[in-house]
Amino acid sequence: MTGTQLGAPCWYELNTPDLDAAEAFYGRIIGWSVGSAGMDGFDYRLGQIDGSMVAGLMSLPDIPPCWTLYFATPDCDATAQAAKMAGGKIFKAPEDIPGVGRFAVLADPQGAVFALLQPTPGSEGSAFNQAKTGHGNWHELYTPDPEGALAFYGKLFGWTESRRMDMGPMGFYHILHHDGADIGGVFNPGEGVPPHWLPYFGVPGAEAAAAAIPAAGGSVTRGMMEVPGGAYVVQGTDPQGAHFAVVGPK
What we know:
- This protein is an alpha+beta fold.
- Helices cover 17% and strands 43% of the residues.
- The protein folds into 2 domains: 9-119, 2,3-Dihydroxybiphenyl 1,2-Dioxygenase, domain 1, CATH 3.10.180.10; 136-248, 2,3-Dihydroxybiphenyl 1,2-Dioxygenase, domain 1.
- The chain is built from 4 helices and 16 strands.
- The longest helix is centred in the middle third of the chain and has 12 residues, at 146-157.
């Protein structure tokens, strides 16, 4: 990401009760090398690939294992307030992270949690890169109200719907567009699935990832599904139960 583009995916953060196990798992599945961020009094780890930082790993009590997606903003405070005015909630008010930027944790009107990051100038990074494996590649929003979600994020980030695909009884899969590229999808998975964001990370081969996930202690929840463009996706959970997905050639 060059500069701070409002609404650009910019960071991925895992909360897990077992940092060592998560470090080993994602290193094997996605290819990250994981090391300490050097934060005083707090064990925060960074997942990197080819010199680029992609993800953070931490362990907070009373929060179930999960991935949180961060979207960039040039003004964290203003965007957080805009989200609240549009029907969202502020779970973590804007706060500074020395040397990194200013962040906040929110929920959209349907309850899906996401975060904002106002990067310190020069620290924008490239966690999201659809051309490179090991980076964020796609972002899927599960929500009971796709139209409401499209309106909320469109107003907040300027995202648009590039097209929609008819999924039959499941309704439409809405493709999110930002800054000249399709970055994710929105759909209603039906009853029993809470609103949430699901990150997809690029891998060299989906078939190899599908085999490696259970071998490394995780579970495949939906395997080897071809998507438009010739890529394949695999959805799963890590050994601690956090949901994630990968995408790549077969």
